[in-house]
Design a protein that fits this description.
The chain is an alpha+beta fold. Helices cover 51% and strands 10% of the residues. Strands 2-3-4-8 form a 4-stranded antiparallel sheet, with no helix packed on it. The chain has a 3-stranded antiparallel sheet with strand order 1-10-9, with no helix packed on it. A 3-stranded antiparallel sheet has the order 5-6-7, with no helix packed on it. Helix 5 packs antiparallel against helix 6 and helix 13 runs antiparallel to helix 18. The radius of gyration is 29 Å and the shape is elongated. Mean pLDDT is 94; it is low at 61-68.
Length: 543
Amino acid sequence: MPQWVEAATLETLPVGHRRVFKSGDKQIALFHTDRGMFACNNRCPHEGYPLIEGSLEATQAANGHHRSTGCKLTCNWHAWTFDLASGDNAAGGDRLRTYPVKRDDQRILVDVSDPPDDARQAEALASLKDCFRQNDRDRMARELARLQAANGDPLDGLRKAIHWTYDRFAFGMTHAYAAAPDWLALRQTLARDRAEALVPLVEAVAHINYDSLREPAYPFTQRQDPGAHQDLVQAIEEKNEDRATALLRHALAGDAPAQSAKKLLAGPLATAALAHYADFGHAAIYLLKTGQLIDALGDEVAEPLLLCLTRALIQAWREDLIPEFKAYHPALRRWRDPAGGGGDAPVTAADFQRLSVAQALARCLRSKDRPEELYAALLGAAGWNMLHFDLALDQRTDNPVSQNKTWLSFTHAITFANAARHLAERQPALWPQALLQMACFVGRNSPFLDPDISLSAWRVDDPSGFLSDNKRGLFDHQQAEPIVACHLLKLLFAVGEEVARAPGQESSTLLLAACRRFLASPLKRPHTLRAARQALTFVAGEG
């Protein structure tokens, strides 16, 4: 209902004058111009400076004559300009809250009532979508705060962001979606106040916007095709996106898309994700995180996320097809060959130190009948490799492209291992692929180590405190690139899970020490001089 209050009289506010009045918590600027009377929030929605100090100008019609209905107000701090009749922002930023004004004889009345919550929520979400045109991170924070102030579900901003963008990734899912469940977990477990609870939502939404910024839509087929789970695996293997999408849509067409999604993620999509040593581990990581994000956000996001994931599985490069990993498929065939003999040898992380890819794969086969023990050994080996990463390689600017090694070459071995374990525990038939692909990571990183790094120098004596403190640091991480913050986030959560699963074990000790050294030696980005030298070498070789 309208709530009319007296703001002034014609005597106290004649034409050409302005004033501020308060109503409850509201501070409202009132302007009496020759074009009419206008009321608005006195605080500029940009940074809160007082609009009562702004500059007024009558709006201009196309023919240059003054309109009789409008007036524009410019905030003199940053030149944001608003239409006082509508609240529209000339620069396309936050809208200004305006209030109806009327006269009652000599009294000037302002309706200070608030719109219904549902209207305020809808406006906040529409404004959040408008932020995506300019990747305005600060405005995203304000719109998400407005959504919460209107008693909306703060997760709705993330749900909408997924719907606005899922078809704008030419190669399917990115870390923008994959990091979101870890941001939500950080919010749920460690946020201590409203500001910290808002940070993970801003991080997730802003990263989605960053990765999809100004991308066109890459539509998915609307067709639905019935079929078995194996048909979906085959369609992905054949890189047939239309067929895979149609099968997926049909599988999700029931009343409980999130439940159907769980079956797809644990079955055919997990099989497809580990069918190849694919995409530097991203396929398995994206699949795990898709399931977690659907669990967090519900049915509404199941289809768009699975469509985006399926496109990523189809587009993933298949590294098992390059010479470096040519031993992978023969090793997988030997693992599965009933006549291949047993593989019951005990195994530790030390057994994989400094092994090549082929040697690491062969060592796996000797212990293939001990999958849990083999997993712990490979995870420990990945941690040992990361602890011993030769930082000189990260600083080099004169190396060939094939020798471009950064911390991410090592962190991915760990985040992949965490994801692959989850997939194999749900579908034990995938243990051979999971473990052999972990061995590929261990072997590919072994030439790039500094053996003189001491474990004792980086040992973590208080794992719980170490992980909690560094996770808390993510609320104010100071990283300019979303992808860097994202990798810090997903590594800390993966290490946290693995340490909780095996407290005090060798693998946990190595993971924690590696993580501590990594956090003490941040990523070097960008590698501009290296890229320039490699570009010159590459172009010179083109002939």
